[in-house]
Write a structure and sequence with these properties.
alpha+beta, three-stranded antiparallel β-sheet, 17 strands, signal, about 280 residues, single chain, about 15% helix
Length: about 280
Amino acid sequence: MHCGPLRLFLLAAFAWISLNSVSLVPSAQALDIPRWWYYGQTAADLTQLFNQNNARATVIRVQDPKVPTFDVSMVQNTDNFASAWWWWWGVDANSIGPLLKNPNKRLISIDPYETPQGLRFVIVTVPNDGPQDRAWWWYVGVDEDTVRRHLATNNARLIDARPYVENGKKLYAVIMIANTGADHKNSEWWVGATPDFIATRFPAGLRVARFNPDPSGDWDAILVQPGSESWWWWYGFNGNQVLQHIVDDNSRLIDISPYLVNGAWEFASVEIGDNSPPQGGFEI
């Protein structure tokens, strides 16, 4: 895929990967919409980075639940991407509903993680009113069949579907929006699929929107009908390689998933061209 000339400069952030090591992780900023990605950050780190960059998160994932540390894709909170927004971490399932009220909010990112106190979530929200108003639903503690029933009943498509294992059973935390009007897109959700199989769906007019390891093996992917945007998907790369893809492709991350391979962190990532407008439901 072809992108125009890229002008960028690099910023640097320290990402604490363990108690005994520090990794220097650059993040990129380009002329389309300034955007950054950081990994291995504490909640305090993220708060500082949001303020420093005048930025908001579009997706946050848990990297190490023991600390916890987080991975984030953020965009400068200006122009077409300007929005009120909120994020929380360490919240249980019963706490999410009240956080979505006063003012009315909608989830755009959710990630579950285990703690000694039980299952917790990190969430990102935006207002669900005015031009951002959408019919939408969220569920936690549901299995694959239940997710698919909700999709059919609600005439919806998935925005996020994060698997976790509880009492030996694979469950999901999901966000979905009504697949109607301007938000209508052909969409598919594949669970436990190989990358080769996922790629067979691209000729059917689909691209990857979310991509993450499945606890049972292989990969889960949310696919959507693309517009005119360029896009890329990757797995098996370290943090600096993810950055290099963003630089080379003049792109921004719309999904990131950390996972361990032989004790080292690798990432699955999904990018779209940074000249693409905000992705409804996913980014705004």
